[in-house]
Design goal:
Length: about 120
């Protein structure tokens, strides 16, 4: 599984695993019912603690993206697309709030932010 851990990042390792798996789901690399590597295998592969992988898998379950079947393993489980969409919106909102705080620190006017946002949207069209 192509998960890359940045040990110098301020983002906890379990969150990096969750984010990489979420990206693989969004990109269609992982689909509903696909098995995830066992906790021990992924921990060995990434050279990290099995408890860290367990925490990542538990987080994926809390977000409605995985289901663990005891004795069988952990599987991608995308039964609630609305929950996934809401999670994505929440993540986007958090990013926007962070951006607005940064603009505030730089004393960027609200109108300039709107104009910049519209310009960036036009470039993406």
């Amino acid at each position: 599984m192509p998960i890359i851990i940045n040990t110098t990042s301020m983002i906890p390792i379990y969150e990096q695993i969750v984010e990489d798996i979420k990206i693989m789901i969004k990109d269609g690399e992982l689909k509903d019912g696909d098995p995830l590597p066992s906790i021990r295998i992924l921990a060995n592969e990434l050279k990290i603690s099995a408890l860290t992988v367990k925490k990542a898998y538990d987080t994926l379950e809390e977000k409605g993206l995985a289901k663990t079947v005891h004795g069988k393993g952990t599987y991608i489980s995308i039964l609630d697309q609305a929950k996934i969409d809401e999670e994505n919106r929440k993540e986007l909102e958090d990013d926007i709030v962070s951006l607005l705080k940064k603009a505030e620190r730089y004393h960027v006017d609200k109108e300039d932010i709107k104009m910049l946002f519209e310009l960036m949207m036009e470039e993406r069209s």
